[in-house]
């Protein structure tokens, strides 16, 4: 384990051990066991079927599309697909759980072991184990703030399909946990199994955190529930690890318990201890037959998978000569990767990568836009890059042109033409200007020839000014060097 | 045309097939037939067979049926009135499951089985009494009070001191209504014997189809892996007619089976020459009355006389069936009944505290037997006990199904008594739940194995009330079961009438 991942305590070094359980909402028009709609933001209790409300005599029927999505996710996570899996009931009472049980998968999930490659800082990678992925229903939502004496329940979420994706306890820092969340989100979005929208609750995380002396056995873990942003996941883990170290270093022991993260105070608080934990009385749901999949069907889904982030990254490094870091940044979102490839089509691929990751990202960020709504199309950016590459405009000019493209949505060539920005690369014309500038400034020319390098830059500026910035700076430099050399 | 063949009371004496024939011939209308049964239903209120009578709806449905017949659109049960166990959700008609917790529950939907029956032309008379959530073998565990068996014990020989007899359960109201001629047919549900045992106690025919044959959608669940809807009627033919209308695949029930529904009535034709009948020695349980043993032997003789080949079969795990049943059914029930929590529908006893609201609601809403089974079920599923109870019971269930599979390699049907005793009196066996559970000893195994099984009235006990014989068949071989049952029925020529007809 890398030295840098250890936490320094008062009594020596500590290592964090983290495992994440992520609940990812399956993209599907209908719920996991009913035909009700899953649209976000509908009026409370307007998307509730008789099944979702657990009316007497109602029965669940599995939504095949949700099963397909889970298989797709399992394949994308390089995991074993279990052709035989079972739905179980997890029994507990709560007003937002209408049936008094959640249909989930306990001992025989649809997806078994697999792995995921984390993209870490500086282009490094690390492989982390996936324990399992299973399908389950979401519960409804309890609203405690609509009146002093009552709790209201919205069942729109009740029955929506979730994939619970469980990692091995392989993560060793909050940064790795963050990288895990980002990568998982990226993969799920690539395959269209989950939209990854943490604000709407489409992706939620429970973090199991413990600390230990490096090389020793696992310590007692605490589970931090319902973290709904990557930032909160990281902050909660950092806080929790330090809290546990403090407890141990003060001579105490960590209690096995469930905790909640207070994002305002930045601390975790005990929710319930393991002794108070529910006995969920899991048993196979007798309303549902075991889920039996056909290998040929799984193979079909596998064959239709899109290129996944890791493969795309390898291709970008190999085909475009990008750095691991740049390639990692470009493939994180499929839309970005597609944009990049369109912009780089027939152009200088590295130059295109720089333009996408610096100018485009910067401008989008400032404007609060995502790539799908970029005012500069990928083809248009490609056009701009083409103008730079064939020397029509300088990189300096290109930034101004880009700003205008972003502002107006116009093509680069049109802006260059309209403003007469086309760079002068005619050596004779530049030489004439250089000669004139030297002739007008004989004293400075003399000093320059005597070795005053500062003045060389001054002459470049003078030539550029004389050409309204249109002279090809590379040529200007070369010609000046010859004319002013000792 | 003058309907001279019957007065109104005579119409209630008709079997379902006879009533159907009369309707077809135009001898009487569905309205007349239905009105006669509504009158009988009112006159028979002492039996407490119905929780909710729906006479207005019945007459509306009858009129609609008569109109359809005039338009030449008669279905296979066109115009025939039937009674419906109060476990089937009926749109706009209160459905209580015999429980206080659903005392005022009116479903906005119709169960698949009842919808199928109405599509076939049947008319609903009302919702019948039952043990709460179908848990019981006496119909004494109903919030609406016990239903009464129209049969009486003879004289005072048994010391029954004139106490009425139970109709059995849990479909007690359905069995009592059919026996007392309040309805020519009724539907019930059978989880461990809840159709067959009351059919036996009341001297009617009751059929539990193969698990998956009828949709469970819209039936208030007791034990999902066992519950199955079926008919109760006064003849095997009537049950065949009803099953044909009830059965069929339903995409809304994942455990419903997609296979064609045969013409069950047509399957009654023909004899039973060469039919191989198995007699399982393991059903000779300790303390079984001689008269049950004699009845069973009589059944064997009847079938042999008609050309069947009767031989012994072994169902070695039979003795474990009852304990396994009383683990699996309560386990599923404990989870199925969690939805009755006072939050969305049904009874709520308010409290400022959520847990207290749950406790008060469920304490007030459930009767003692339901509470007992929910507790047993929660216990056998709990951490540390799951393997020893629930998992082991499931293994036993597989072994029992295996016993039957093996037996059906050499025989076509299995013949057993339906119950180990005739109907007992209201108030008996209530202080000993285990004695009550023993009622299911002969019916439970077929339930665990998911097999079709029928109870046919075969004679009267020494005390007076009737006794039934049970035939168990291969999965989805209701046709053979019905054909064998028809042979038993003809041989038994059971034509005794209950004393409590009023």
Please tell me about this protein's structure.
The complex is a heterodimer of chains A (486) and B (502). Chain A folds into 3 domains: 299 residues, no CATH class; 113 residues, no CATH class; 57 residues, Orthogonal Bundle (Arc Repressor Mutant, subunit A). Chain A is an alpha+beta fold. In chain A, the strands form 4 sheets. In chain A, strands 1, 2, 6, 7, 10, 11, 12, 13 and 14 form a 9-stranded mixed sheet that branches. A 3-stranded antiparallel sheet of chain A has the order 5-4-15, with no helix packed on it. In chain A, strands 3-16 form a two-stranded antiparallel ribbon. Chain B has a domain of 314 residues: Amidase signature (AS) enzymes (Alpha-Beta Complex), CATH 3.90.1300.10. Chain B has 16 helices and 11 strands. In chain B, a hairpin with a 5-residue loop joins strand 10 and strand 11. The longest helix of chain B is centred in the C-terminal third of the chain and has 21 residues. Chain B starts with 7 loop residues before the first helix and ends in a 10-residue tail after the last helix. At the A-B interface, loops of A face helix 10 of B.
